Fold this protein.
Amino acid sequence: MQITILAIESSCDDTSAAVVRDGRVLSNCVANQEVHQLYGGVVPEVASRAHQANIIPVVDLALKKAGIDKKEITAVAFTRGPGLMGSLLVGTSFAKAFALALDIPLIEVNHMQAHVLAHFAEDPKPDFPFLCLTVSGGHTQIIRVRDFHDMEILGETLDDAAGEAFDKSGKLLGLGYPAGPLIDQYARQGQARFEFPEPAVSGLNFSFSGLKTAILYFLRDQMAKNPQFIEENLADICASIQHSIVTILLKKLRKAARQTDIREIAVAGGVSANSGLREALEVMGQKEGWHTYIPRFEYCTDNAAMIGVTAYYKYLRGEFCGQDVAPYVRGMH
């Protein structure tokens, strides 16, 4: 029997639906919410209202692109958390109603686990065990992945996530939201000639709030001397910020790889789309003798395909949930 899963992702501001059949992605559709650019960040109330408007058209498009009828769906999967409560409620409620109407099983998926398993959406796929550096606007973690269902967090951020450090630094530079991709663009045209202190954090944990403060003070001091400083040095400032964040991430990843003696190394999450991180990972991978994996861009950002792929492996184990399931805002459940 074919296992055909309709997957819903609504953890933040992207409404996404995908159809995954026997672990293979047939369609992956995303509706973005550009309205948040006006506010310089995601506004939860606005996000949940936009999900309500987007979810039916996006699901409809995903079914059409996959070329299937809703009667062929064998289960519905959805992001249960972590994420914004209002946004999660829209996806959870829709998935519950859809499963109830068709009398098919419901599968809840952890958003962070799904980012890790996005590597199984297409080839090449990492071998178990592998290490996965998961970097996004809300999360920064190093995870040891023993199999599809056995994951252990070895290190995580104690304060801000890497994506947040990009966005907040971009705000200081007067760049729009989200600033990560813009910093990446400017960084390609500049040189990393400004140095920022690296946070001293023991073990495999991260901290980015100190770096953010250091960037703030550096810009304030330079602007006092020359009010045109940011304008005149934008590309070099961006290259320096990117270099600092990428260096912090990869030093910890190398430490984890050496401690665990694992050479299968994967990166996932929205920040894995950053060209500086991709290039630096490749260079370090060659030096360290790693096999490195980064999903295609559409599987790095929030998307329903990764929810569907994760749900497929849960389906094989009969891991379904009841209609009483509720979303959660934080952590691994």
Remarks:
- The chain is about 45% helix and 20% strand.
- Residues 124-295 form a domain with the Nucleotidyltransferase; domain 5 fold (CATH 3.30.420.40).
- The mean pLDDT is 94.
- The first strand starts at residue 4 and ends at 9.
